[in-house]
Specification:
By secondary structure, this protein is α+β, with helices and mostly antiparallel strands. It has a domain of 78 residues. The protein contains 5 helices and 2 strands, in the order H-H-E-H-H-E-H. Strands 1-2 form a two-stranded antiparallel ribbon. The longest helix has 11 residues.
Length: 113
């Protein structure tokens, strides 16, 4: 996504990420950025591409599961740092990661396909 359509410049902007992703998103995002410093797919260091935090199991699945909360989606085992190019690929299913969430905890409806 280009800078000209990100954040407040995007027609779908609704005032910030934390409200969209619920409580716990901001701290989880910051914590992951402390532990990962490069794209986990291509190794890019963020020098000329923005690094972004990606949910391995999408937030929408947690929203749809009655036994889960949005905070569950933000567990560090469900997050990975990607450059914006790899993030787009991951969103379209061209790159995938195994979640590090405790699979005993993760309901069948949330298993990554």
């Amino acid at each position: 996504m280009s800078e000209s359509t990100a954040g407040e410049d995007n027609p779908n902007w609704q005032g910030g990420y934390s409200r969209q992703y619920g409580s716990g998103w901001g701290p989880a995002r910051a914590k992951l950025r402390e532990t990962q410093e490069e794209c986990q797919e291509c190794g890019h260091d963020g020098s000329d591409r923005r690094l972004e935090v990606h949910h391995i199991v999408p937030v929408r699945k947690f929203r749809a599961d009655p036994d889960s909360t949005l905070r569950d989606a933000h567990r560090l085992g469900n997050l990975v740092l990607l450059c914006n190019s790899c993030h787009t690929k991951a969103d379209f299913g061209d790159v995938s990661f195994d979640t590090q969430l405790d699979l005993e905890y993760l309901p069948d409806s949330l298993q990554n396909e």
